[in-house]
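Entry:
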Amino acid sequence: MPGIYLHIPFCKQKCYYCNFYSLASLKYRDVFVDALLREMRLRKDYLHDKHIETIYFGGGTPSLLHPDEINRILHEMEMLFNIDNHAEITLEANPDDLSSDYLKTLKTDTAINRLSMGVQSFFDDDLRYLHRVHDGNHARKAIEMAKQVGFNNMTIDLIYGIPTLTEEKWKQNLALFFSYDIPHLSSYSLTVEPKTALRLLIDKKKLKNTDEDQGVRHFEILLEQTRQHGFEQYEISNFALPGFYSKHNSTYWLGGHYLGLGPSAHSFNGRSRQWNVKNMKLYIESETIDNMILEKEILTKNQQYNEYVMTSLRTSRGCNAEHIRNGFGEKYTNYFLQTIQKYLKENRIIQKGNTYVLTDAGKLFADGIAGDLFVDED
């Protein structure tokens, strides 16, 4: 299911933990949409007129765009790409941006049919630790307003492993989520990335560091609670009621093709990966594709195998040995089957026919297990 991702890099302020490319300024907003439309026209053939089934406005903070700007972008996409009539079109939003009028206009006057809300926590002390703009009251009101105007296909983000987040508060966050009858949840462990404000503040002892044991316990609670409420963990950090999986994100995990538009956005066509320049000034001044693309790599067979292992192992579908045999040959299949044996013995992976799926214990070590299954470059 080919998709298009649009990176909207504006924020009111930078969250301490964020390592995505974004600007805490609207300085370039007026010219950004023009540049984005120009990139669309330059790269309209990237997906070779394939049926586009998903469109995703990510960021940054796409909800800083006016509905008229969203419509202008979507209209240009309809002119340039083969957009499916029932495409999933998602907008990421921060609770503090969402007024009742904005949501009504979004629902009635644009083609946005799925909302992804960055709540992170319903507790103010957690939100202050993360340096979020909104507070818990903003989050609750935004969800209630979105449901009132008819956004039933909605997801929220919740972060666990925050030092200020006790087990009891984490259970309350989840209970509040379930009380809203939202069909999808994305939930991530707080990660302290290099070169972020959070890393600097922790190093200077101004903020408390994360605790691995706390994060593990929060993850266990998350698995318990989502199962009790009928949610399927279709990817390690994503949970949904049947029929509400994120089609766009599933494109990434299932090896689908996608076009990334906007500064720092990544694209993948099955053979190569490329990503745009991480500089707004250079991006808006780019008149050609060569000036816009920061880097491009042709994936080797080893890299393609490693990507399949990494992404598929994160999903409930798991890694399929027959897929590896058909796509990469006996050498890769034998290596995979040999290396995975120790994880079967440790009960971190279970075998279902030709498919290998992480157990709950294995999900805690997903990245390490995938890395162990990788084939090194010659």
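Residues 212-228 form the longest helix (17 residues).
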